[in-house]
Design goal:
Layout (H helix, E strand, L loop, with lengths): L1 H10 L3 E5 L3 H12 L4 E5 L2 H10 L6 E5 L7 H9 L9 E5 L4 H10 L3 E4 L4 H31 L17 E8 L3 E8 L9 H16 L1 H4 L3 E7 L4 E11 L7 E10 L4 H19 L6 H13 L3
Helix pairs in contact: 3-4, 9-10
């Protein structure tokens, strides 16, 4: 009894989007989770679920989705969610009757967080959900402790880039071409003379991140801070992908990077937000003002934190 009360306390108030075209299974999952204090948002397929996510200002704490559904299946739904910077960090669990090792490996390869097979075992469902939420709470508590510690010591960091070094900051956009590999689309400021090959450095960053993450994880929003020893610079590299039927994988992989004399961890968190906004424009094929975003990056790197 005490264990059930503890589980209910841990799960109370969390919001989970559950997607399944079978109304009986959807109702059953909703009943199990809501009896433990979870707010369940039901959807009958991926298309309906995306509409719910688009219309809501608040994202769910977790998504549980069937795979075999009409209009938009679970794989396509997951791909769309994982390439959206607003949604890509939501824990995603596949719910399916397809329990062969190959199907499970495919889900893992795509980057899904876990796999629940039908028929649903109530204890397994609750255990997996509780485990994901417990991990979420630990990260949230750790971040709160970290922020409070910074407030107490009145943390102030000098900017990584001096006024004399601002001209060395570079913003570049690349994409993966199936035939040629990493291709440079644009960089800014393009009118300045750069003492190194931008194409070579971009290629180097692309390959370095590929070795660290693997191609599968790079299809989700990922970011990494790297040192470029051969030119004595730092780079923050951000990857994401969008649907593109002209490619072999059905997705086009993009890399946005900021190269500067130095970038610290706290600055990289702010730079990631800027690059995610740029990618939203790239994904929607909207013309974006590179000067505006470049100015944001300069402010981050040349101002006190």
């Amino acid at each position: 009894m005490q264990e059930e009360l503890k589980i209910k306390k841990d799960l109370m108030g969390f919001r989970i989007l559950v997607v399944d075209d079978n109304k009986d299974i959807l109702f059953n999952i909703q009943l199990i989770l809501e009896s433990r204090g979870i707010n369940v948002i039901p959807a009958r397929n991926g298309k309906e679920a995306l509409a719910i996510l688009s219309d809501s200002d608040e994202v769910p704490d977790m998504i549980i989705s069937d795979i075999m559904m009409p209009q938009m299946n679970g794989y396509d739904f997951f791909k769309t969610v994982s390439t959206n910077s607003r949604l890509s960090s939501i824990p995603f669990i596949f719910l399916t009757a397809r329990s062969s090792p190959e199907d499970v490996r495919l889900g893992k390869l795509l980057g899904v967080d876990d796999y629940i097979t039908k028929p649903i075992n109530e204890k397994d469902l609750v255990a997996i959900v509780q485990g994901k939420i417990s991990r979420f709470n630990k990260i949230k508590n750790y971040n709160n402790i970290l922020l409070e510690a910074f407030r107490e010591i009145n943390l102030s960091l000098d900017p990584s880039v001096s006024k004399e070094e601002v001209d060395l900051i570079l913003l570049l956009l690349m994409y993966w071409d199936d035939a040629y590999g990493p291709e440079l689309l644009k960089y800014h400021p393009s009118e300045k003379k750069i003492p190194y090959s931008i194409e070579n450095i971009g290629f180097q960053l692309f390959n370095a991140a590929s070795l660290i993450y693997g191609q599968g994880r790079m299809l989700k929003a990922e970011g990494i801070l790297l040192n470029i020893d051969n030119i004595k610079m730092s780079a923050y590299v951000y990857f994401n992908a969008q649907e593109d039927n002209s490619t072999r994988s059905g997705q086009r992989l993009y890399m946005l990077s900021v190269i500067a004399p130095k970038i610290n961890y706290f600055e990289s968190l702010q730079i990631k937000e800027v690059l995610a906004r740029i990618f939203s424009n790239v994904k929607e094929n909207v013309e974006w003002n590179v000067e505006h975003y470049y100015s944001d990056v300069i402010k981050i790197l040349s101002s006190n934190i």
